[in-house]
Amino acid sequence: MSIHLTEGLLSGERVRLGARPADKQQAIAEAAQLLVASGCVDAAYADSMVRREAVANTFLGHGVAIPHGLGEDRHLVRRNGIAILQVPAGVEWNPGQRAHLVVAIAAQSDAHIAILRRLTRLIQDEATLARLASTDDATALIAALDDPPAAADAGRAAEAVDLAETVEWTVGYPAGLHARPASRWVEAARAHAARMQVRHGHEVADAKNLLALLQLGARAGDRLHISAEGRDAAAALARFRAVIDSLTAQEKADAALAAQRAAQPKAAGWTPPDAPVCIAGIGASPGLAIGVVHRLAADEAPIPDHPVALSEGGTRLHEALCATRQQLEALADDTARRLGAADAAIFKAHGEPLNDTDLITLTCQLMVEGHGVAWSWNAAVERLAAKLSALGNAVLAGRAADLRDVGRRVLANIDPSLVRDALGSLPQHCVLLAADLSPSDTATLDTTKVIGLATAQGGPTSHTAILARTLGLPALVGAGAALLDVGDGTPAIVDGGSGRLYLDPSPAALDSARASIAEQAATRAREAEGRRQPALTTDGHAIDIGANINLPEQAATALEQGAEGVGLMRTEFLFLERARTPSEDEQFAIYVAMAEAIGGRPLIVRALDIGGDKQVAHLDLPHEDNPFLGVRGARLLLRRADLLEPQLRALYRAAKAGAALKIMFPMITSVPEIQRLRAICERIRIELAAPIVPLGIMIEVPAAAIEADALARHADFFSIGTNDLTQYTLAIDRQNPELAAEADSLHPAVLRLIRMTVDGAARHGRWVGVCGGLAGDPFGAALLAGLGVQELSMTPREIAAVKSRLRGSRFDALKGLAEQALACETAAEVRALDRSAA
Ligand code: PEP
Ligand code: MG
Description:
This protein has 838 residues and is of the alpha/beta class. The protein contains 30 helices and 26 strands. The strands form four sheets. It has an eight-stranded mixed sheet. Strand 2 and strand 3 form a beta hairpin. Helix 21 (641-656) packs across helix 22 (671-688) and helix 27 (778-787) crosses helix 29 (811-823). The structure holds phosphoenolpyruvate (PEP) and magnesium ion. Residues 568, 570, 609, 700, 721-724, 771-772 line the site of phosphoenolpyruvate.
């Protein structure tokens, strides 16, 4: 018998009265059997329910327990259903807690939240529950359940036991397992039915639960045990591993870039003419702005505890969670359009707590204990956030702030009067001061009113800082509590470059800051104006300017920024960003699309450069103790025809289809390498009857630079990878943040190798480009042009400033500058030439 209000969730066949299980385990087994017998779940679900008890508390309160399977085992659920085991004498669920009604739940996907809302109706009052615990009328029980049951998922293991299939994994992410990669882990784990968990010492997390993963507090170098069991566990684990490995390169690149930026000497910037009162913090987003202080009062009003009927509380929570999810989706969408996909991804990770079963279960348990919905939600958020903060890890502390941010959004949806809209009424030209600012507040700031930000807490890598940089808002963070004593309306100058907030500046300081702002704006405008012009020096020498982009979608921006072609397309990202090797056809489509996207302009495609910091798990390459000195770049290509040949075929097919491309090989160290690669190219070209394509090599190791004249006989062009050339010349791991400041491409030794490369190439009439980081630095670009480099390729946003620098220089002077640099003894001396440079 099925009753209509329960929409088939509960039927008489799934109610057992007067049960007398010996213990909790038997109670679960009996309840599970009711679900199995009525076809709701596979038999293995019973075991999953038992295992869930080891990782979560399913005792809801008031004599009701809600055992259910693990989230990963949802594939064992054939249809949503509820079974009730009535235990009049009660069965001990936890020490001191007896269950009289065991409500076993089988729920697919996120149905558990809806079911939970219904269950709350059952336990509204103890008198009803007492009656139901001993009734001998199943229909009474069903009628009382009326609009019934459900569950919550949950989280963390008490016992550190690995599952059947296990791999060990050392965290290679320099910033540890923080929210962005962790949300990719969750996505990857959820793609599989198998149960998957991650163990860090004695701590265990469900790999499908973001907060649980973050609470592992895994830092770079920590060893994790990742395990899986259930359907296709081994394959699922291998694919999961491939995904998490594939994130390593990007994480390292991000960290190296952050370290490089942090180590870069601060731009000369603005110095006040006098000594205004100043609060110092950490520069988070460069730029200078003048305004008046507006302090964002902390939202410290206590959340009142107004208990409501549980059914109503459950409904309100459910609706608030749904509304918040929609708002975050809209915010991500808007952010993607205004600021780009990378910034929008922040909100993807941000919405995860809304699916966090620990958080929702805890909220429901608090409501069952008699607390109001808003109070319960807030308390649950605070408990989890406090736990994250207590791990003593700055990154996780940042995630606690994110959790509170989402928490506030949900609160506002439960009851708008609980959360003040402090950002709704801002004065014009305000420098916003706050203890901290949430990412969603930052993304939605009205930039017609806010001209700068300063926060007492936070760090330069926080999401708020990232968003401020994208919005172009000068910002400083970590300025300390003194910041919050500054009175509203105080005139201020914020310098996001030096991380300083100047208060009550004198008229002279204001004049000077205004002049500096005007000068910076004029410079940017001038640079932007000339970005479509060729990089022609005042005496008529032209330098080709390319963009370093990897995907056709990036081409429009690159061209808009003034790129004249693509000087480096790093194809390894096609391999890194997916958990499998792209097929020849897929590669062909991308190369053709890139050529089309840049409208037939020059395109240099670099063959797969794997190894070193770019590891691709699905290639199953052997472990190397020192991968930067191992089977990397061309060395790997020559050992793996299965990778090289499909790529070359795809490239030659693209050339045959009309793409004006050149092929470039990475990490060449000797003549035989290029000879062998050339021979393979020629064989494939002939097989495909494709046109001749220029074949170039990267100059990234001292051996190649020193032997450039010999290599030039066999290569059609060179492109110098200054990132690697610097690391190999100076013997500094390019990922080492400690040495980032010393890994300076302006080191005279690197410059001399560049000169040798140019000279070697000239002997055989070859041209030389540079696609490493030095090409995107205006001074570096000027020096490279002076050294005889003919093409420079960089990230698109660097193009305007580089072109402007070259267009304002005389080639003669640049050559002189290069000679002076080659004569310097240190990188610092070379840098000092910038002030006197052409
Ligand atoms: C370089 O080494 O400078 C370069 C452009 O290659 P990658 O950064 O991809 O190693
Ligand atoms: Mg390189």
